[in-house]
């Protein structure tokens, strides 16, 4: 039976959580819109220039912490989480094999943005069917939203020292999405932090991008360097990148809370194109047409073909000096763009091949 808006707000909130589960989200909570402390933290981070070339972070800084300004009428945020986790042992095996390519676990399958947005919109539509029309807007990385702070306040998890959200029962390998609503629902208690004195994520970071607990320097982060950064990768950071060609998971893989986390298999997030097994040489051989065809519907499209080759050239420079690795680098030496060629020359020099 439909639950009218005049019903007990507690009952409406409980029904929202039930529907979120029915639509495939493993976690759901409701948060208020007060983010004063988080806004101050964000302003300080931006003032230190730790966002690199992501100018959009600075342009919409304050708006991120003010849901009521981003979508007028908003009084609550429904925050949801969708698992994408895999076996961590497989990830470590790939990282230990210098000839294989490492792709961040979230990017091995289908791009989550469209999947989550469609599912969230269907959830919002279903809520409207049950409680009546209400003002809302759905977000999945589609606007300036402080999603981790909102998710923490909604009880989905705490923000770890690596700045990712951690659920003590589900680890950190899950995506976040939000529905801004004008329904005055009761809010959930925020999650408490459980990092304690642990600093494994800080110590393992290959480029030491976690400059202090809860403080990430994006300019040193491998995820930023391989996905967002458009120019040459700073030479001093190339060797630490290892075989990571799109993103990095080390800080999450090492987190004790992920070791025993329960995984939910989402078919759309299953690996495509054998990206969990492919060698660097195999991926470096992709033509642009092949890259576009194979990455259709994938988050990897975000890097673009030139950055894809740039990243693999760096990884090949860090790979064992095998005939296949040297041949792969030489195969593009003359035809590559100036950006890619710079990284190929660096890689060949690493192998003593000029």
UniProtKB/TrEMBL annotation:
Q: Report the main location listed first in the record.
A: cytoplasm
**Cellular compartments annotated:** Cytoplasm
Q: Which residues form the active site?
A: 141
Q: Which cofactor does it need?
A: [4Fe-4S] cluster; cob(II)alamin
Q: What is its EC number?
A: 1.17.99.6
Q: How does it assemble?
A: Monomer.
The entry's function note states:
Catalyzes the conversion of epoxyqueuosine (oQ) to queuosine (Q), which is a hypermodified base found in the wobble positions of tRNA(Asp), tRNA(Asn), tRNA(His) and tRNA(Tyr).
Q: Which reaction does it catalyse?
A: epoxyqueuosine(34) in tRNA + AH2 = queuosine(34) in tRNA + A + H2O
- Highest taxon of source: Bacteria
In terms of InterPro entries, this protein maps to: 4Fe4S_Fe-S-bd (IPR017896), 4Fe4S_Fe_S_CS (IPR017900), QueG (IPR004453), QueG_DUF1730 (IPR013542)
Class in the EC hierarchy, top level: oxidoreductase
> Could you tell me what the cofactor note in this record states?
Binds 2 [4Fe-4S] clusters per monomer.
Record: residues binding [4Fe-4S] cluster 2: 205, 221, 248, 251
Q: What is this protein called?
A: Epoxyqueuosine reductase
Top-level taxonomy:
Bacteria, Pseudomonadati, Pseudomonadota, Gammaproteobacteria, Lysobacterales
Location of the 4Fe-4S ferredoxin-type domain = 183-215
Family as reported in the entry's similarity comment: Belongs to the QueG family.
**Where on this chain does [4Fe-4S] cluster 1 bind?**
195, 198, 201, 255
């Amino acid at each position: 039976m439909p639950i009218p808006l005049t019903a007990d707000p507690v009952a409406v909130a409980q029904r929202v959580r039930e529907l979120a589960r029915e639509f495939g989200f493993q976690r759901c909570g409701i948060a208020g819109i007060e983010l004063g402390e988080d806004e101050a933290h964000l302003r300080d981070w931006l003032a230190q220039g730790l966002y690199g070339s992501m100018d959009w972070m600075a342009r919409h800084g304050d708006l991120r912490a003010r849901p009521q300004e981003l979508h007028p009428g908003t009084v609550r945020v429904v925050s949801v989480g969708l698992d994408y986790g895999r076996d961590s042992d497989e990830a470590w095996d790939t990282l230990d094999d210098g000839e294989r390519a490492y792709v961040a676990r979230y990017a091995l399958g289908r791009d989550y943005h469209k999947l989550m947005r469609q599912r969230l919109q269907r959830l919002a539509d279903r809520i409207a069917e049950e409680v009546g029309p209400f003002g809302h807007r759905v977000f999945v990385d589609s606007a300036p939203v402080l999603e981790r702070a909102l998710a923490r306040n909604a009880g989905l998890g705490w923000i770890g020292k690596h700045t990712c959200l951690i659920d003590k029962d589900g680890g950190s390998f899950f995506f976040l999405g939000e529905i801004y609503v004008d329904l005055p629902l009761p809010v959930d208690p925020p999650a408490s932090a459980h990092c304690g004195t642990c600093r494994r994520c800080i110590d393992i970071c290959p480029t030491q991008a976690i400059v202090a607990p809860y403080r990430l320097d994006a300019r040193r982060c491998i995820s930023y360097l391989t996905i967002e950064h458009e120019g040459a990768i700073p030479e001093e950071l190339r060797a630490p990148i290892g075989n990571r060609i799109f993103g990095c998971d080390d800080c999450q893989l090492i987190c004790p809370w992920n070791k025993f986390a329960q995984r939910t298999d989402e078919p759309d997030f299953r690996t495509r194109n054998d990206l969990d097994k492919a060698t660097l040489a195999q991926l470096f051989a992709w033509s642009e047409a092949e890259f576009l065809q194979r990455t259709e519907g994938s988050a990897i499209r975000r890097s673009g073909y030139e950055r894809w080759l740039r990243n693999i050239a760096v990884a090949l420079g860090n790979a064992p000096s095998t005939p296949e690795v040297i041949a792969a680098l030489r195969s593009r030496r003359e035809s590559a763009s100036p950006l890619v060629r710079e990284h190929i020359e660096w890689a060949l020099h690493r192998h003593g091949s000029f």
